[in-house]
Amino acid sequence: MAVGKLYMIDLSPPVRAVLLTEKALGINLEHKELNLLGGEHLKADYVKMNPQHTVPSYMDQDGSVIGDSHAIMAYLVGKYGKDDSLYPKDLYSRSVVDQRLHFDSGSLFPLLKTCVLGFTRKGWTSISDDIIEQVKTSYDFLNKFLQGEKFVAGPKVTIADFSCLTSVTALGLIIPLDEKLYPNIASWLKRCEEWPFFSAHSEGFAKAKVVYGSFTKNSSKFFAVVLVCAVVAQVAVAKVTPPPTTTAGDFMAVVGPRDAAVVPQMGWLGLTVRGILTGNNLVSWLLTILFLNMPLVALVDVLFTVSCVGGVSSIGVLGNILWLLTQIILGPLLWILQLRSLLANVINSADFIMAVGKLYMTDLSPPCRAVILTAKSLGIELELIETNIMAGETATPEFLKMNPAHALPTYKDNDGTAMGDSHAIMAFLVGKYGKNDSLYPKDLAKRAAVDQRLHYDSGNVYSLHVSIVFPMWMRQSEGISQRQLDSAKSMYNVLNTFLEGNTWIAKTASPTIADFSLATSVNAINVVAPMDKATCGNVVAWLKRCDGIPHYQEVNKKGKISTQVFSNA
After folding, report:
1. Which of 298, 324, 347 is the last residue of a domain?
2. Which residues are catalytic?
3. Does any domain span residue 568?
């Protein structure tokens, strides 16, 4: 019995990634082949289900609908997997898989899409050196990911292998992969062929190879039929508040008025020295720290005070005995407690909050700003390390060990784990430090919606930002092309459809990390390719709501100004 319906064509690499997941899980999906050339993906009912009108789309038995192959695979493993091996629950292991998935959606597949559209819509007769170099760079990154590893995210097969495999093999038909230059990829591909479910990829891939064989690479018709069905369908055509610093007022409620009176003049250290010299409030402090029992504290304080005045009264004798016992038995413990209080006072001060990790970043980068906004929303502190890409700071051996893709942002947690890709970093931070799941829901259907939007950012929005802004920064472009303006318009229209009847981008009641990613990317693109406010009212209203997210304007302001400066230079 089928657990859901998959709208597909097996010539599509992302579809084949979902088919691999289906077979690996041992489940059955109803396969609904779409006639893309006949425009079935453009019909109103399909567009309502998937505003991007792409394949694959998945409808579960419970009515949940998901677009984007990466989100579909994660959903299927979460709901139907007998274990988590294909998509680990361990936060770090999952972050590696997420990074590889976004490497596919943000690098491998967009390059494939660019080539296909070039031959089918733009009249390419050959592939430019620039595209060839970009593909080779992606091959090189993947080869480094596989250094010392059996599979792309570690020793075991994951859904990241399914995505990268289907995209790389398709790219290899356009720009062949040199096994001598990329031996790790070559060995990995051979290991993939050993999967018992490999036929879920090989059958559809064999059809593609036959179609490719009908054309030559220099033909103006190259890929006119080849992947127009397979890839064009993938293109949318249209902080918890930190503990307060301890003050005299806070301290008065604990140690009583007599000791509190000296705090403003002497401070913590002065009060500690006074206590050690007089010995008349050590037990008070100990009892206060351990029990917070004010009547008992007051009694002992009186005993010690009488003993310090002198005399042979029974109270004075008792007080001296208590003082002596305190020094002999409890003295070392009290020193530790006092030292702890001193350290806590420093650590919790407004000027020093312990960072949970290091973020290598630059304010110019929308993904970096999305991570910073996530940290602030979680109430955690990150040590921000401004990193100069142009000076080669991301190409050092130390940096490459953390992130072979030498990209920003890169995050290194205090436990030593390091990861790249903003989307994977945000998910990791929410999983490890979030007090609830509002930023990244645990409910599978809701999370799938967030994942789909995150991958839409990787493959469509941020990738468009890179194609427009980076050449301007590098002085390789004098402005934005009409093609890029058209792409921006299409992107705005898709986002406007996502937001129809919704407050936030993933149909949630409050902002998620998908809002952080897309809003920072969209704001950057809007500087150089302004949206039509008349036709994108939902996007305009959403961005205005984003301005109301705590810390959003603070985090985004500097980067937005930098983008304006560079684009106008």
Report:
1. 347
2. 12
3. yes
